[in-house]
Every structure is written in C-alpha cells, then in structure tokens.
Amino acid sequence: MPVMQRRAQDTRSALLQAARLIFADVGYSEANVAEVVARAGSSVGSMYHHFGGKADLFMALYDGHQSRQEARADAAVRDSLAVGERNSVRVFAAGARAFMQGAWEERDLARLFLSGDGPPGFDETVRAGLDGWVRRTGAALSETGDATVNRAYPLVLTTVIAAGARGVTQQGDDAAAAAFADDFVALLDRFTAA
C-alpha cells in the first residue's frame, strides 16, 4: 500500500476511534468535532475530508457496527440451518444470541445506537437496517419449512431482539450478560410457542 494511502487510512481510523470514545462518553448531541479531532491528533480539515462532518462520522461508526452485528447474526442462522435445525424459533434464537453477544462485546456502541441520540434521519436508517435483517431472516426461516412462519413473524421477533440487545448492554459483566442472553432466548422460545 502506498504511503499516502496508508496515512489516509490511519487518519480515518484514528478519527473513528476518537469519535467512538467521545460519542460513547457524551452522546451524539453533546459531542463536538474539535474534541474528536484533538483526541485523534488530526486536523479539522482531515476530519471533513474523510467524513464531511459529525453526522457522517457517526454514521460511519454505525455502519461498521451494524455490518458486524448482521454478519454475526446471519452466520449463526446459517450455521443453525447447516446442522439441520428446522425449528424456526431455534434458528431465529441462534441469530438473536449472536446479535446480543455482539451487543455485549461492543456495548459502548450498542448503547449509543440504541439510545435514540443520533443525527437527523438516524431513526430511518435504523429502520431500514431492521427491514433488511427482517427480509434476510424471513428468507432464512422459510428454509426451515415451518408453516407457522408468516411475514410479520421476523419483524415482531427482530423488534424484541433490539430490546434484548439494549438489556444485555446494561449487564455488569460477561457472566451476567451471558445469563441475560440465555434467559432472553428461553423467554423467546416460550413466547413463540404460545
């Protein structure tokens, strides 16, 4: 990789890391660009060159986090199907558990993005991401052959998963987060069996 390209990548990474720390500490509304730039050891011009502003920086953090979360959940669903699971609730629960584990591992970001404090239009972006996950999960669940799965099923369960992710981020340690996730998946199983 050429030196200039590596420097640009390093600057971008430093700005994202600084923004992550500041946004997680004070929230989107209270964060300011000068603080992010100072913590990154960069310049305001570099920040605007790479991101265009505070909202773009926030959205870059969200996009990265959301991509990792979706990859975790999608992989868990695929793995569950690959081992022959055909119960739609168990397949969905595998994805839910992976999503909650990711929310715990990246709890600083999960708390931030689940707080409702974001740039204008952020709620619509979150909803669009949710819609994409619902479509993918619905398609995966249809592979189970479970006739009880309808179009609303993944939407309802995915909305519940977001609440579970919010809850897992509030736990005090790894053991409590794992126990919460176990309890949540067990409750999900009982809820959907009714």
Reported by name, the CATH topology of the largest domain is Tetracycline Repressor, domain 2
Helical residues, percent:
over 70%
CATH class of the largest domain: Mainly Alpha
Supply the CATH architecture of the largest domain: Orthogonal Bundle
Written account of the structure:
With 194 residues, the protein is mainly alpha-helical. It folds into 2 domains: 1-52, Homeodomain-like (Arc Repressor Mutant, subunit A), CATH 1.10.10; 61-193, Tetracycline Repressor, domain 2 (Orthogonal Bundle), CATH 1.10.357. It is 81% helix and 0% strand. The chain is built from 9 helices and no strands. It has helices at residues 3-30, 33-40, 44-51, 54-82, 88-105, 107-114, 122-142, 152-168, 174-193. Helix 1 packs across helix 4 (54-82) and helix 1 (3-30) crosses helix 6. It is elongated.
